[in-house]
Every structure is written in C-alpha cells, then in structure tokens.
Design brief:
271 residues, mainly alpha, two-stranded antiparallel ribbon, 5 strands
Length: 271
Amino acid sequence: MKARIAALLLGLILAGCATTPTGRNQLMLVSPDTAVQASAEAYPKMLEKYRRAGKLNTDPEQVRRVKEITGRLIAEAVKDYPHTRDWKWQVAVIDDPDTVNAWCMAGGKMAVYSGLLKKIHPTDDELAQVMAHEISHAVANHVAEQMSIQLASQLGLAVLSATALKESRYRTAALTGAALAASLAIQLPYSRKAEAEADRLGIELAAKAGYDPHAAVTLWQKMERVSGGGTPEFLSTHPSPGNRQKALKALVPQIMKYYDPRAPHPVYRGL
C-alpha cells in the first residue's frame, strides 16, 4: 500500500510541474486557477475581523496613496503578465500600527498594514518596491506553489505515518479546505528562491511603473533598522538573507533601463 501511495505521489509531482517567469521550475499540484478561486474566498474572511473592529481603510489619505502606487504597478503587471488581466485586483489598508507587513494572495488580493507605513516611513518609491514584490509573488504563482508544497507534504507524511500527519503544521489547511490553505500560504515563509524571484520581478515591475530601483536597497536598509527592536512580521514571512541588499544593489544597473519617471504611467482604477 505504501509503495502504491509513494508511486502516486511521485507521479503527481512529476506531472505537476510548471515554469515561473524567470524560468525556474516549480511544483504545481494545485493549479493557479484553483489558488485564485481559493484566495477570492479566503480574502474577505481574513479582512472581516478588521472590518468588524473598524480597522479597515480608516485613513483616506493612506488608502489613496496605496491605491495610486499599487494601481500603477498593476497596470504594468497586466501588460507583462496577460494571465492577470481578468483578476479582480483589490488592496486594503489595515489599521494595525504594530504590524509591519504586506501581502498579496493569488488573484491580486492585497493588504498592507499601517505599521509598515508608520514605522518604515517609506517613500513612494520604497512603498512601490514593497507592493511590487508582493504582486510578483502572485504573478509568479507562488501561492499556488506554496499550496502545492502543503499538499505534497500532506501526501508524503501520509505515506510515512498517520502520527506524522497529525503533527504536520499543514494538516489544518489540507483538512479544512483550499481557502484556508490559500490564507496559510501567505503566512508561511516562501523559499529563498521564491523570495529572490519576487525581488527580481518586483524591482523590474516597479521600474517600469516609474519608481526608482535604488529604493529597493534603501527599503531593506530601513527594514533592518526597524528589526533591531524585534523582528517585524514582514521579515518573519519574507526572510531576508544577509546578502539581500547586496543582490538588489547588483540588480539596479540592469534595471535602470526600464526606469523613466518622466514617461506617462497608466494607473489601474479598479481598486
């Protein structure tokens, strides 16, 4: 029995492969469309507690700024990644001054916390780097990939033992449904390869939208300073290797060819 299950798992893994925009192979047992649908179900549930507490989109100026910057990035993302054209893009600003975080689910369901705006004090260029990085996780199907890893973990642990499955941190997501798996996917750290990929795609996306690539470096300098008082949520879910600033700085000369702040930059107005 175990041999048959193991063979099934191997077959699923071999069949469930895809390629990211940078050419990286990724596990895709959960289809991107499934991840988008699951995220659309999970997103309002994740925001509901803040809505009930009166902590959702409470500062009109913050909301306007976030939507303007994010709208420019989305307009570029839709041009570069046609599969995102029909996404129902959304972004929310959560009034939580102690949380330094932002995320983007599959299908362009986004949130940024007021703590990131108030503790990091990002310039528009730096905030664009945050949002472009998060959008890049979505366009590269990292949420579907993360959900696939959860599923593969479930199947693999089931082969090993029922006890191991009970102890799995992924058990709840697998047993409760895809929507919970989608929400869990953005709460767990991405792999370093996925993070590096989102950095690369994000800095290019932001540059095309008219935001200075140098801001990717200064943003992480600010993140490191804030982390001195305890690890921000953003760094716990987006691990920052010691050479991250160095890698981003090395990318800047390559990315500058996309950067023209004087060019007209369309804004997606559907947020």
